[in-house]
Specification:
The protein is an alpha/beta fold. The protein contains 15 helices and 21 strands. The strands form five sheets. An eight-stranded parallel β-sheet has the order 11-10-9-5-2-1-13-12. A hairpin with a 6-residue loop joins strand 14 (471-474) and strand 15 (481-488). Bound molecules: 1-O-alpha-D-glucopyranosyl-D-fructose (TEU) and calcium ion (CA). It comes from Rhodoferax aquaticus. GO terms for molecular function: alpha-amylase activity.
Amino acid sequence: AANNNWWRGGVIYQIYPRSFADSNGDGIGDLAGVTARLDYVAQLGADGIWLSPFFKSPMKDFGYDVSDYCDVDPMFGTLADFRALVERAHALGLKVMIDQVLSHSADQHPWFVESRSSKDNPKADWYVWADAKSDGTPPNNWLSIFGGSAWQWDTRRCQYYMHNFLTSQPDLNFHNPEVQDALLGTVKFWLDLGVDGYRLDTANFYFHDAKLRDNPPRGRPTGEDPAVNAVNPYGWQWHKHDKSQPENLVFLQRLRTLLDEYPNTTMVGEIGDDDGLARVAEYTQGGDKLHMAYCFDLLGSAHSAPYIHSVLERFEQLAGGGWPCWALSNHDVTRFATRWGGDTPNPQLLRLAAAMQMSLRGSPCIYQGDELGLPEAVIAFEDLQDPYGITMWPEFKGRDGCRTPMPWQASADDLGFSAVDVVTSKPWLPVAHAHQSLAADVQAQQPDSLLNFYRQLLAWRKQQSPLINGRLQLLPSHPQVLAFVRSEGAQQILCVFNFSDAEATFALPAAWGEAALLPSSGLDGAGLQGRTLVCKPWGGAFVAAV
Ligand code: TEU
Ligand code: CA
């Protein structure tokens, strides 16, 4: 029978359709473009894809503002294009996960248009509405992730509505069972079209505190970057009042019950939270809620061996059987090549980070282009498209730099982004010149390219069951070297990564007898001398007990 738990340790490849491939020359990526490039994803060795939103949307947040949960935006194509994509993916052995943006809709969704029309229409309570304070100010101190108050005054209804993001992304009221039922119906729509799972946007934001209590000032959690703390000094809207947390878990159980009616399906939740690791553990324990979840602990700038050790140690202590998804980049953060590697990313660091990601306990998620080692693109202010970046400029240069078109063909002006000769318009974001030499067609021809390293690493990983299914036992923290053992039954694989630009030596675990470097992972840069591993800068190794 097909592997019921393909997701458990499977490699997910995140596709941001707007920037992946443009099939009709309008400068915007689309579903047919994705379909045409799925063989590249299969050749990489991924087990499934996560497609960012392609639903009907005013595109204020590029699809994360949905105005029809059950249709494809014409910009991306049609439902028929989506069916063709799923069919092609399945023919290539790829699972298809799609984004679900349930916590908020677009303000142009018919539900919100009706809800805001009065205080007593059938949908009046489908969103989070509240009266102003006696002095006209918002009901509490909640802030939007995108800056400013989380409350927007509506002149017609003469009340405030809550939004965790843009004012054009009104928050749905999950305390209303009709909202939950309607959203579960939209999730079912795509299951019936054959999707294999979902990435759940802001899976920890569904419920707000119904009592609308002020958030207390948040202590500065470790790893929190200033931009996030500056925007939201009071922590996330409802999380500070755990009264609403159990309701969130109940909704996740309702989602799971629905998915369990469709064999081999899965959900990965996105957790943006002051204590993301605890949420990931909580939401993925018990086998009755999310299958997996990701948080932002490896999506920031910190990447020292001690820091990564602390993240893994914390999660293993919390996990209790939970299952993380580990991403190093996504469409919301600076690409890790630049975030961790700086302006001239060290190619060895890129290999080391990929090898580390592929050996962690959990399911790895590769963001499109990271397998090519793409650095963050530099976007001029006048070319910015992301409202978050425009409002936060220059503290936070926005999210466009990780969203420029994929470079398929070095010789083409638009690097092969648009498939047709007669291109009717330029790409929606400028292609990055720095990406030309890294284009997929160039790297496919270079045996020692990063692309071929990823292909080799993922192929090798498929044969290493301890990396996919095994336990993780951390070795003591070390200033340069991150090391842990992945074990399954009698098989043990020691994974060693020197996250420093100096040579590092590392002693084999005392309990180990003979050991040998595992060949053919592609990871190099370390040698075994007796019982000591000598790692070059940014070098690492997989070692097997023999
Ligand atoms: O991002 C959620 C999000 O932005 C927060 O989790 C925040 O970034 C994080 O907690 C800060 O560390 C999702 C989508 O990925 C993003 O593209 C959308 O803009 C957003 O939700 C609204 O749908
Ligand atoms: Ca297009």
